[in-house]
Amino acid sequence: MIINHSLFFFTSTRMGIPFNFNHTDPMIQQITFRLPRKRRGCHLITQEVLQHLPQPLPQAGLLNLFVQHTSCALSINENADPDVQTDLEQIMNHLVKENEPYYQHTLEGRDDMPAHAKCSLFGVSLTIPITEGRLNLGTWQGIYLCEFRQQGTARNLVATLYY
Protein backbone atom coordinates (compact mmCIF):
# COMPACT_ATOMS: atom_id res chain seq x y z
CA MET A 1 0.00 0.00 0.00
CA ILE A 2 1.35 3.41 -0.94
CA ILE A 3 -0.10 6.58 0.53
CA ASN A 4 0.88 9.96 -0.84
CA HIS A 5 0.35 13.05 1.23
CA SER A 6 0.66 16.58 -0.02
CA LEU A 7 2.31 18.95 2.38
CA PHE A 8 0.92 21.75 3.26
CA PHE A 9 0.37 25.42 3.37
CA PHE A 10 2.80 26.87 5.88
CA THR A 11 2.58 30.38 7.26
CA SER A 12 5.19 31.88 9.51
CA THR A 13 6.75 35.19 10.37
CA ARG A 14 10.30 36.20 9.83
CA MET A 15 11.45 39.45 11.33
CA GLY A 16 7.79 40.36 11.82
CA ILE A 17 6.89 39.95 8.12
CA PRO A 18 4.57 37.06 7.26
CA PHE A 19 5.63 34.75 4.45
CA ASN A 20 3.97 31.71 2.96
CA PHE A 21 5.45 28.45 1.81
CA ASN A 22 3.00 26.57 -0.37
CA HIS A 23 4.35 23.22 -1.50
CA THR A 24 1.96 20.98 -3.43
CA ASP A 25 4.37 18.23 -4.55
CA PRO A 26 4.18 14.97 -2.61
CA MET A 27 6.65 15.18 0.23
CA ILE A 28 5.68 12.20 2.36
CA GLN A 29 5.23 8.70 1.04
CA GLN A 30 4.39 5.72 3.21
CA ILE A 31 4.67 2.04 2.36
CA THR A 32 3.72 -0.88 4.59
CA PHE A 33 5.23 -4.24 3.75
CA ARG A 34 5.72 -7.64 5.33
CA LEU A 35 8.99 -9.49 5.79
CA PRO A 36 8.77 -13.28 5.86
CA ARG A 37 9.22 -15.23 9.08
CA LYS A 38 12.82 -15.40 10.25
CA ARG A 39 14.51 -17.58 12.83
CA ARG A 40 15.81 -16.09 16.05
CA GLY A 41 18.81 -13.83 15.47
CA CYS A 42 19.91 -10.67 13.68
CA HIS A 43 19.15 -10.69 9.95
CA LEU A 44 20.54 -8.30 7.35
CA ILE A 45 17.47 -6.87 5.54
CA THR A 46 18.89 -3.89 3.63
CA GLN A 47 18.12 -5.38 0.21
CA GLU A 48 14.65 -6.54 1.28
CA VAL A 49 13.84 -3.01 2.45
CA LEU A 50 15.13 -1.47 -0.79
CA GLN A 51 12.97 -3.85 -2.84
CA HIS A 52 9.86 -2.38 -1.21
CA LEU A 53 10.81 1.28 -1.64
CA PRO A 54 9.82 3.27 -4.72
CA GLN A 55 12.66 3.72 -7.19
CA PRO A 56 14.31 6.00 -7.80
CA LEU A 57 14.64 7.32 -4.27
CA PRO A 58 14.51 11.11 -3.91
CA GLN A 59 17.77 13.00 -4.29
CA ALA A 60 17.61 14.12 -0.66
CA GLY A 61 15.38 13.13 2.22
CA LEU A 62 14.89 10.76 5.12
CA LEU A 63 13.69 7.20 5.41
CA ASN A 64 12.04 6.22 8.67
CA LEU A 65 11.54 2.49 9.23
CA PHE A 66 9.21 1.23 11.94
CA VAL A 67 8.49 -2.41 12.82
CA GLN A 68 4.95 -3.01 14.15
CA HIS A 69 5.84 -5.65 16.72
CA THR A 70 7.07 -5.87 20.32
CA SER A 71 9.34 -8.92 20.19
CA CYS A 72 11.72 -7.90 17.41
CA ALA A 73 13.70 -4.75 16.68
CA LEU A 74 15.59 -2.80 14.04
CA SER A 75 19.26 -1.94 14.14
CA ILE A 76 22.02 -0.57 11.97
CA ASN A 77 25.26 -2.44 12.29
CA GLU A 78 28.20 -3.91 10.40
CA ASN A 79 27.20 -5.77 7.25
CA ALA A 80 30.56 -7.30 6.22
CA ASP A 81 31.26 -9.99 8.82
CA PRO A 82 28.43 -12.45 9.64
CA ASP A 83 30.05 -13.08 13.04
CA VAL A 84 28.62 -9.71 14.09
CA GLN A 85 25.10 -11.15 13.78
CA THR A 86 26.00 -14.12 15.98
CA ASP A 87 27.83 -11.99 18.52
CA LEU A 88 24.94 -9.52 18.81
CA GLU A 89 22.53 -12.32 19.61
CA GLN A 90 24.92 -13.82 22.17
CA ILE A 91 25.38 -10.44 23.86
CA MET A 92 21.62 -9.87 24.05
CA ASN A 93 21.06 -13.39 25.44
CA HIS A 94 23.70 -12.68 28.08
CA LEU A 95 22.13 -9.34 29.04
CA VAL A 96 18.52 -10.57 29.03
CA LYS A 97 18.18 -14.18 30.12
CA GLU A 98 15.22 -16.51 29.70
CA ASN A 99 13.47 -18.30 32.57
CA GLU A 100 14.19 -15.66 35.19
CA PRO A 101 12.05 -16.42 38.26
CA TYR A 102 10.86 -12.82 38.58
CA TYR A 103 9.21 -12.73 35.10
CA GLN A 104 5.44 -12.46 35.44
CA HIS A 105 4.57 -12.26 31.73
CA THR A 106 5.13 -15.95 30.89
CA LEU A 107 1.95 -17.28 29.23
CA GLU A 108 3.31 -16.84 25.70
CA GLY A 109 6.49 -18.82 26.31
CA ARG A 110 9.83 -18.53 28.04
CA ASP A 111 11.25 -16.41 25.21
CA ASP A 112 8.42 -13.85 25.12
CA MET A 113 9.24 -11.54 28.04
CA PRO A 114 12.96 -11.51 27.20
CA ALA A 115 11.99 -10.65 23.61
CA HIS A 116 10.01 -7.63 24.84
CA ALA A 117 12.96 -6.46 26.95
CA LYS A 118 15.42 -6.87 24.06
CA CYS A 119 13.03 -5.00 21.77
CA SER A 120 13.02 -2.11 24.23
CA LEU A 121 16.82 -2.08 24.38
CA PHE A 122 17.25 -2.05 20.59
CA GLY A 123 14.20 -0.04 19.51
CA VAL A 124 11.58 -0.41 16.80
CA SER A 125 12.48 2.43 14.44
CA LEU A 126 15.39 3.82 12.45
CA THR A 127 15.90 7.03 10.51
CA ILE A 128 18.34 6.92 7.60
CA PRO A 129 19.31 9.92 5.45
CA ILE A 130 18.85 9.73 1.69
CA THR A 131 21.56 11.47 -0.32
CA GLU A 132 21.90 11.56 -4.11
CA GLY A 133 19.09 9.01 -4.44
CA ARG A 134 20.67 6.40 -2.14
CA LEU A 135 20.43 5.41 1.50
CA ASN A 136 23.34 7.23 3.10
CA LEU A 137 24.63 4.27 5.07
CA GLY A 138 28.31 3.99 5.94
CA THR A 139 30.54 1.62 3.98
CA TRP A 140 30.08 -1.23 6.45
CA GLN A 141 26.54 -0.45 7.63
CA GLY A 142 23.43 -2.50 6.98
CA ILE A 143 19.85 -2.59 8.24
CA TYR A 144 19.05 -5.50 10.53
CA LEU A 145 15.85 -7.08 11.76
CA CYS A 146 16.61 -8.60 15.15
CA GLU A 147 14.18 -11.43 15.84
CA PHE A 148 14.04 -12.26 19.52
CA ARG A 149 11.46 -15.09 19.51
CA GLN A 150 12.41 -18.70 18.77
CA GLN A 151 9.54 -18.90 16.29
CA GLY A 152 9.08 -15.37 15.01
CA THR A 153 6.23 -14.55 12.68
CA ALA A 154 6.16 -12.51 9.49
CA ARG A 155 6.90 -8.91 10.49
CA ASN A 156 5.19 -5.75 9.25
CA LEU A 157 7.35 -2.71 8.55
CA VAL A 158 6.22 0.83 7.79
CA ALA A 159 8.60 2.83 5.61
CA THR A 160 8.01 6.58 5.52
CA LEU A 161 9.93 8.69 3.02
CA TYR A 162 10.25 12.40 3.74
CA TYR A 163 11.46 14.60 0.89
Automatic annotation (TrEMBL):
InterPro entries named among the record's database cross-references: UPF0047_YjbQ-like (IPR001602), YjbQ-like_sf (IPR035917)
Gene3D superfamilies, sorted: YjbQ-like
PANTHER family the record matches: UNCHARACTERIZED PROTEIN YJBQ-RELATED, UPF0047 PROTEIN C4A8.02C
Family to which the UniProt record says this protein belongs: Belongs to the UPF0047 family.
Protein name: Protein belonging to Uncharacterized protein family UPF0047
Lineage, broadest ranks: unclassified sequences, metagenomes, organismal metagenomes
